[in-house]
Amino acid sequence: MQIIAYVFLITGIFFVLSTAVAMIRFPDLYTRLHAGSKCLMAGSISVLMGCLVLEGINLNSLKLIVIIIFLLVTNSVAIHVIASFANNHKIKSKTITKNDIED
After folding, report:
1. pLDDT for the residue numbered 3
2. Which residues contact 43 (CB under 8 A, 6 or more apart)?
3. Domain residue spans in the chain?
4. Who has the most CB within 10 Å: 31, 58, 80, 95?
5. Which residues of the chain have pLDDT under 70?
6. What is the predicted pLDDT for the residue at 39?
7. Which conformational region is residue 56 in: left (phi greater than 0), alpha (psi within -120 to 50 degrees), or beta?
8. What's the pLDDT score for residue 98?
């Protein structure tokens, strides 16, 4: 079981580090939001799953499951709200040439 937990932890750390690199390298808000929502979500859930496997079945496992569910629900909503705010305030993307939302 420890090997499975370590695979989850290493995978999660990789995704979190790739999110940090993407936040520095990507040119605008929308591409950074994409990296922040996808990679950070995969990374944080992988790290929490690794902790869940290492912890075993007890009260702390239930707390970790609640945290994972909370992250799954709130991350997509938060990213959508930020992107909608940016679009409503006419924050332009450096990579998109056609705006499909206004069409």
Report:
1. 96
2. 11, 12, 13, 14, 15, 16, 18, 19
3. 2-88
4. 31
5. 95-103
6. 87
7. left
8. 65
Predicted local distance difference test score (pLDDT) of residue 95: 65
Q: What angle do CA 11, 58, 39 make, to 5 degrees?
A: 20
Q: Are 68 and 47 in contact (CB under 8 A)?
A: no
Residue 90 falls in which region: left (phi positive, over 0), alpha (psi -120 to 50) or beta: left
Model pLDDT, residue 29: 87
DSSP the chain: -HHHHHHHHHHHHHHHHHHHHHHHH--SHHHHHHHHHHHHHHHHHHHHHHHHHHH-SSHHHHHHHHHHHHHHHHHHHHHHHHHHHHHHTTPPPSS-SS-TTT-
User: Residue 45: CB partners within 8 Å, gap ≥ 6?
Assistant: 12, 68, 71, 72
Would you state the torsion angle of the CA atoms of residues 6, 9, 10, 14, taken in this order, to the nearest 10 degrees?
A: 170
Q: Residue 62 is encoded by which pair of tokens? A: 């239930």
